[in-house]
């Protein structure tokens, strides 16, 4: 079976759904291919900083989430070995977004909020990309042929890879494979049916080679994480919980252990923390003609700055804006040559932002889990927590811009050849 589409997006994660929403604002309906049978909420929850909320504002969905999630007000980091406590300095948001602040939300709630903005036939589940081919279509225009594992062939004028860390599209572009950071992460949701009693504060704990923390989602749920050196851990939820309690967090405060013991095991996951080396983004082919990548497919990063979700939302707004403006300038038509230029402009805008986030995230984790050497402790406790907050604040206050006000009903998106 063969189908023809204007835009195909591989992956119905944050980047994929957000990009489809951004394009819909310009009357461009994308087909989103998702390999799973439903929206995947791996990771359970995530923390969104001001830059992410600005992107959600541009997409027109932030109000759905701010209404049910309260901002975090402050936090602290406790050194388990010494007992020293460092206050977390949350960045002051720009005027106009201060009411949103920093919030921890259910990942599934974000995905559902984005999916609700799309037509019901926009997402095709159980659709795994098996192969990609670029075919000349005359006049210098290229058509992307996407083959699925079920034998379906889809032809498209644009292909956007939002298919995660091990992206098929990124591999086709020739991007370097992500590498292991030397650390692994455990994430889960703790449920307290009678209420947990914690305020809207972040609690973090550091020890040699380890870092953990928890933060409220609501009155009864806490999102928690643990990052440790190495990559060997079981995949069974019950065993992950036991290994965290007995091996990795045995010296941590009882408050953290209590949170882990209240974990909803269905939300518990372990994974090695991967990243694409910055030089792979600097010199890599992030696009070729009408094919590009966004989100983790472009810039997988460690979670130490909490920017995986936020950067994916930024990608979506910027990519949607560049393609959308091209569509408007061509009277609602997709012109292959102009769309290719729009994608090239998107890559130019996002490349160095991605490099800084990948580098900053890795260095943040390296410093915080650098070990017991005196100079690492000094760097972490006396320099990083006190003076690095300004640079981090600039990273998380980034504004990716707006989407031009359009009425999608006024745009009839079709195609023409050059």
From TrEMBL:
Residues 6-325 form the FAD-binding domain. Gene3D superfamilies: FAD/NAD(P)-binding domain. Pfam families: FAD_binding_3. GO terms for molecular function: FAD binding; monooxygenase activity. Keywords: Monooxygenase, Oxidoreductase. SUPFAM superfamilies: FAD/NAD(P)-binding domain. Belongs to the 3-hydroxybenzoate 6-hydroxylase family. This is FAD-binding domain-containing protein. It comes from Dovyalis caffra.
């Amino acid at each position: 079976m063969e189908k023809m589409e204007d835009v195909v997006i591989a992956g119905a994660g944050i980047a994929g759904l957000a990009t489809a929403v951004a394009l819909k604002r310009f009357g461009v309906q994308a087909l989103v291919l998702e390999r799973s049978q439903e929206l995947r909420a791996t990771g359970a929850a995530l923390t969104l900083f001001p830059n992410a909320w600005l992107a959600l504002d541009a997409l027109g969905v932030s109000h759905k989430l701010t209404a049910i999630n309260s901002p975090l007000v402050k936090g602290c980091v406790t050194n388990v070995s010494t007992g020293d406590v460092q206050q977390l300095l949350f960045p002051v948001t720009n005027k106009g977004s201060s009411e949103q602040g920093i919030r921890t939300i259910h990942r599934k709630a974000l995905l559902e909020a984005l999916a609700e903005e799309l037509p019901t036939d926009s997402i095709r589940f159980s659709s795994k990309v098996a192969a990609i081919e670029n075919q000349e279509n005359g006049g210098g225009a290229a058509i992307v042929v996407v083959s699925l594992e079920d034998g379906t062939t889809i032809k498209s004028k644009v292909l956007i890879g939002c298919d995660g860390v091990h992206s098929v599209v990124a591999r086709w572009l020739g991007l370097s494979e992500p590498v292991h950071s030397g650390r692994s992460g455990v994430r889960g949701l703790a449920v307290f049916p009678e209420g947990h009693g914690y305020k809207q504060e972040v609690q973090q704990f550091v020890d040699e080679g380890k870092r953990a923390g928890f933060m409220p989602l609501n009155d009864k749920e806490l999102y928690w994480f643990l990052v440790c050196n190495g990559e060997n851990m079981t995949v069974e939820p019950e065993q992950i919980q036991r290994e965290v309690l007995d091996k990795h967090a045995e010296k941590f405060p009882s408050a953290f252990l209590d949170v882990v013991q209240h974990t909803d095991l269905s939300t518990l996951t372990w994974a090695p923390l991967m990243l694409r080396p910055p030089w792979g983004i600097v010199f890599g082919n992030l696009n070729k003609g009408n094919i590009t990548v966004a989100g983790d497919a472009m810039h997988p990063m460690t979670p130490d700055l909490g920017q995986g979700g936020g950067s994916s939302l930024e990608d979506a707004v910027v990519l949607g804006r560049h393609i959308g403006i091209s569509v408007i300038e061509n009277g609602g038509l997709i012109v292959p040559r102009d769309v290719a230029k729009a994608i090239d402009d998107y890559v130019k805008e996002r490349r160095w932002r991605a490099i800084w986030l990948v580098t900053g995230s890795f260095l943040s984790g390296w410093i915080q889990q650098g070990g017991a050497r005196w100079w690492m402790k000094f760097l972490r406790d006396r320099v990083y927590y006190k003076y690095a907050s300004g640079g981090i604040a600039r990273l998380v206050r980034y504004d990716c811009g707006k989407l031009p006000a359009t009425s999608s009903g006024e745009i009839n998106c079709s195609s023409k050849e050059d």
